[in-house]
Amino acid sequence: MTHWRRRWQARRGDGRAIPDRLWARVVADLPCLQALDGNEQARLRDLCAAFLARKEFSGAHGLVVDDRMALLVAAQACLPLRHRGLSALAWYDDFVGIVLHPDEVVAPRRTRDEAGVVHEYDEALAGEAMQGGPIVLAWPRVLGSAPGATGIGHNLVIHEFAHAIDLHGKPLGQPADGCPLLPAGFLGLSAAAARQHWHTVLTEAHATHRQRVALHERFGAPPPWLDAYGAESLAEFFAVACEAYCVDRERLAEAHADLVALLDAFFARPTAPGDTR
């Protein structure tokens, strides 16, 4: 990747640094990019060039990361930011490294239950975002959905980078909580009022989602389209909502209209009368 990294660094934020054939191949690989108009694709391409100039990719267990693999990750990571522009890349400034694994990652876990008993176990992960990085992704899942997934609103890369957005600006050691650092003047509110509004909308949508998941699991009701994993916590709900928002905003709006309006404002999506795309 040395040759193209040099070009990306020399032309930071200039999408022309990405070869046309390489860009066309990545767009062909990602249906969520094919739905963008020409202006959106151009903005996304510029974002990708700037993103690639700032990040360092590595492959684990002998996996060789080539330009296409790096750009596939960059395009999905930058997709939510396309309306906010290059300044939004600051949300990813807390880390540099991105590690691709040839398969799921086995991570050791240690938890203490309410009785004080410590439990140690291994957990298979498709991806993970940590304060300070790196972002870890299982390469087979960069293009595909989770095995057995019932919905179509899945995107591992967006999910993990949503966690990075959530963690940005938080004190060291504070976990993701679904409430990212909001832009100044968000929705014309004071910082405190904006955060309270965000928490209220997110919490209500999360409660609705948990109820739908419970009805499906306990009583056989139809499964919600939104990934059931979002019921785990507000942090996971935010990440699941972000991936669904970028993959199929209209479908998410059918289930969570207030949440989509919140994400529209957060990601600075322009709206016009009658615009539902």
Structure, briefly:
This protein has helices spanning 2-10, 20-29, 31-34, 38-54, 67-78, 139-143, 156-167, 191-219, 234-247, 249-255, 257-266; strands at 56-59, 97-101, 105-112, 118-125, 127-129, 135-138.
Q: Can you put this structure into words, describing what you see?
A:
With 277 residues, the protein is α/β, with parallel strands linked by helices. The chain has 2 domains: 1-144, Cyclin A, domain 1, CATH 1.10.472; 170-277, Collagenase (Catalytic Domain) (3-Layer(aba) Sandwich), CATH 3.40.390. The chain has helices at residues 2-10, 20-29, 31-34, 38-54, 67-78, 139-143, 156-167, 191-219, 234-247, 249-255, 257-266, and strands spanning 56-59, 97-101, 105-112, 118-125, 127-129, 135-138. Strand 1, helix 5 (67-78) and strand 2 form a beta-alpha-beta unit.
